[in-house]
Amino acid sequence: MEVSNMTTVTVFVLLGLSNNPQVQVLLFVLFLVIYLLTLLGNLLMVLVISTDSHLHTPMYFFLRHLSFLDAFYSSIIVPKLLENLLSKGKTISFLECFTQISLVIFSGATEACLLSVMAYDRFQAVCHPLLYVVIINRRVCAGLVGASWTIGMGTGLINTLLLAQQHFCGPNVIRSFACELPPVLSLTCSDPCTSIASILTTMSVLGLGTLVLLLGSYSRIIMTALRINSATGRSKIFSTCSSHFLVVTIFYTSGVLRYMIPASGSALEQVLSVQYSVITPLLNPLIYSLKNQEVKVALRRMLARKSRLPL
Q1: pLDDT of residue 262
Q2: CA torsion 11→16→21→27, rounded to 10°?
Q3: What is the DSSP string of the chain?
Q4: pLDDT of residue 261
Q5: Between the CA of residue 179 and those of 37, 85, 103, 193, 237, what are the distances in Å?
Q6: What is the rounded (10 degree) CA torsion for 88, 90, 93, 96?
Q7: Distance from the CA of 246 to the CA of which of 19, 89, 135, 290 falls in 20 to 30 A?
Q8: Which residues fall within 8 angstroms of residue 200, CB to CB, at 6 or more apart?
């Protein structure tokens, strides 16, 4: 059949997580609470870092952007998920679906870049402490963050535009609760080789590139820490880097598992999607606030200032 004679899909149907109305209500309450906590945690982190002068350092400058990005990413996925849990017609328009795909790729690519930038920052702080202020100055910080956002935007735009060139003639049922690239790509009626090549290139260049930078930075950090005779010095280095290393581990593990499993709509695939897109943005501010003494002290200072304000 000629492509020109095929019916073009204008809307997609999101199967979601459950068809049981009672389960849907419970899931709605659960994900609403998670979403509100995610926004609260990440935006509170942004507020604390912005208002406390003790946290106006490169590490917290990068962390502020990461927290804003996590709040943004959660807002791409969860509101539509909540809407579909309470609606009978679980449809999403072609434009809305591809916008969501573009923003998801943009957020993931930007976060990968930011995490590698934060690892590089810790490498310079630990391995070159005397030159740290000179190397990681304000202009460099702005440039690294700007490059991260730009790479993320370009990656999302290129992959989405290539996917949009595919022809969708049916079926239009997405076996997921959100428009993600793997399940949508499986619905194409035309040859998906271009999109697949673009995805593989992105994963190879961006994914492996940032991972190599992360592993290289942490290898040097560990070697430097082991050469320090002082147990207190080693402990300070590991405590400073442990939060970031844990966030990196969760991000890459959940992301690789999510996108390496073929799109099938299986329960495992749905669990990994929830972990990657809903749970991870919630965990990041908790990890940084609970394991970071400076953040906890800054939060107490901010709350103390608020309590002293006249009514």
Answers
A1: 65
A2: -130
A3: --GGGSPPP-EEEE--S---HHHHHHHHHHHHHHHHHHHHHHHHHHHHHHH-GGG-SHHHHHHHHHHHHHHHHHHHHHHHHHHHHH-S--EEEHHHHHHHHHHHHHHHHHHHHHHHHHHHHHHHHHH-TTTHHHHS-HHHHHHHHHHHHHHHHHHHHHHHHHHHTS---S--EESSSS--HHHHHTT-SS--HHHHHHHHHHIIIIIHHHHHHHHHHHHHHHHHHHT---HHHHHHHHHHHHHHHHHHHHHHHHHHHHHHSPP---HHHHHHHHIIIIIHHHHHHHHHHHS-HHHHHHHHHHHHHHHHS--
A4: 67
A5: 23, 15, 10, 20, 40
A6: 120
A7: 135
A8: none
Confidence class of residue 263 from pLDDT cuts 50, 70 and 90? low
By the 10 Å C-beta count (0-12 exposed, 13-18 middle, 19+ buried), 77 is classed as buried
Burial category of 41 from C-beta neighbours within 10 Å (exposed 0-12, middle 13-18, buried 19 and up): buried
pLDDT confidence of residue 186: 83
In angstroms, rounded to a whole number, what is the distance separating the alpha carbons of residues 95 and 11? 9
d(CA 286, CA 304): 21
The rounded distance, in Å, linking the Cα atoms of 306 and 302 is 6
Asked if the model's pLDDT at residue 73 lies above 80, the reply is yes
pLDDT band at 309 (very low <50, low <70, confident <90, very high): low
Q: What is the pLDDT of residue 254?
A: 80
Q: How far is CA 194 from each of CA 153, 200, 255, 256, rounded to the nearest angstrom?
A: 19, 10, 22, 21
Retrieve residue 240's tokens. 């400073």
Here the tokens at position 47 are: 């507020």
Residues 6+ apart with CB under 8 A from 51: 302
Residue 134 token pair: 């000179």
What global pTM score does this model have?
Answer: 0.88
Whether the per-residue pLDDT at 39 is higher than 80: the answer is yes
